[in-house]
Amino acid sequence: MRIFIIFFTVLLTYSSLFSNELVWLNNYNNALLQSKKSNKPLLIYYTMPGCKACIFMKKDVFTNQEISIFLKENFVLLELDVKNKDVPENLRAKVTPTFEFINFKEQRVADTIIGGKKAFKFLELIEEAIEELPYRVID
Fold first, then answer.
1. 64: which residues sit within 8 A by CB, 6+ positions away?
2. Can you give the pTM of this predicted structure?
3. How confident is residue 52, by pLDDT bands cut at 50, 70 and 90?
4. Integer distance in angstroms from the first to the last C-alpha of the chain?
5. 139: helix, coil or strand?
6. Whole-angstrom Cα distance, residue 19 to residue 15?
7. What is the dihedral of CA 46, 30, 122, 58, to 10 degrees?
8. Higher pLDDT, residue 131 or 15
9. Domains observed in the chain
10. Sheet harboring 76-81: ordered strands across?
11. Which of 45, 55, 61, 112 is the most buried (most CB within 10 A)?
């Protein structure tokens, strides 16, 4: 029985590492803390119910293995409704989907991406964003 539990635990851990599924936080302040702890920028994904481009992004873009791995490795992911008021006013989006790149000090660190994109274009844009980022905290 003990061997079965260990095997099952290892299997779950292994499968989650290679899963395409992204885990999006939904609390701005918690995401900022995670950004600071991990020394990764925050990628805020603004969405709203019924947004067709948002549904496309979730179904066809975020499930792409290359994009999923890239996002997990490089960002703390935060998904917020566009009407969320927890975000500072200067970072709020007016249209969806919108992608903001900020550091834990709430400073924009790369160009905003607005609108749904096909997988190859979205990957190109987030790779460019990483190149722009002066976000690393150096002690």
1. 20, 119, 123
2. 0.81
3. very high
4. 47
5. coil
6. 6
7. -60
8. 131
9. 22-132 (3.40.30.10)
10. 76-81, 42-47, 98-102, 113-114
11. 45
